[in-house]
Design brief:
4-stranded mixed β-sheet; 55% helix; globular; 2 domains; 420 residues
Amino acid sequence: MRHAWLAVPLLYLQPLFTHLALTTLTETPLAFYGTLSTWLLLKNRPTASAAVIALAPITRYEAIVFLPVWAIALWRMRAAWWNYLLLIWAMLAYNLGAGLWLETLPINRFIEPAGSPHYGRGTWMTFVPKLAVACGPIVVALAFMGAWRILRRPFGWLCLLAPVSYFVAETVVYRWGVYSSGGYSRFLVPLAGWLAVLAVAGIEPICLRRRRWLRLRALAVCGLLTAGLWVVSEIEWQLNPPEVAASWLPLVVPLRIALAGLCVLLAIPALYVLARPRPERLRPVGQFIFVTLLVALVLPAVWALIPLRLNPQQRIMRDTAAEFSCGGWDTSPMLAANLWMYYWTDRYRPQGQCDSWTALAGAQPGTLFVWDARFCTDPDIAMPRGALADKPEWQLLWTSPPRPGDSTAFLEVYKRIAGP
């Protein structure tokens, strides 16, 4: 590919990839596995490629959709039969180890689709704005432009089919509300490597120096696609309003108005360029489109360089964990619906359903329970605020400050003082 080196900056210009690159979340290593496996196929090393992509389903469950895609690639390469077996080696080892030491089979997760109602459901368009948030609207637009061009190259179909299948899987899972999917934008970070390659293919016409008219039309198409992404996003947000942090609420309307105006400024000159049969007197228009797209490409990446910070809920949990030390509760057993409390207090989560009424009923004297306003009020737990206040066997030890915008405590710490 011409200008193949652009894949690297186009990868790190994707805001959430850069933002999460220094974290231990599963999306970043999954992006690495997918990119490395694709490169190994291009180098005619199907055995190594199959062995690497086998790690995908044990990194994120929905990545199991990559295995049939790789099976097709192995078949088209006429790879030896043992390469197909390598596609499942990680799943076999993972389930064998979990079965022997944890007495559970992770593969059962696939046949138990019922999820928590906490996360709700999306629409068929939910992940369109999330894709723009995760990868940047300009990279997504360039990837659309490069889709048809990449098909003419070796394994170009794989660079297109793999991200499409994963995107569809995420959409279907969240649309049906199964497998407790939160529908977060970061779930699409694994597509970063493929989108960077597709974007390189899409940017090729823009890099043509001697064919100014073709370059200008490519810029116009990119501008229209960017505006189209915004239109779809606005439709989705009208159908399914996103949750916005209280601190951001005053900025939501001005930001949406500003972005809508920017898209209009992109769409009008883009349509003007595409409607003109000749490129005369269009150089200023092309420069305007180019500068606008460049700013829209770079600004999200600049935002991504801002260090990750704790949100208000996380700060409250951190401070609550500090109270454990001050109160001498470090050695007391603990139950919590919010799994982050186990992280902040440096504990392992007990096996089984530790956030249910059944677990609380069987708790021994001295056991702590951390009630939180986020998960305990879910229908699958159904533990409203004050549910333990009238139970004499539970004593309220500590309450946290409220979240911004709330008037009541976010966390309440109870202690079991009588046996079951």
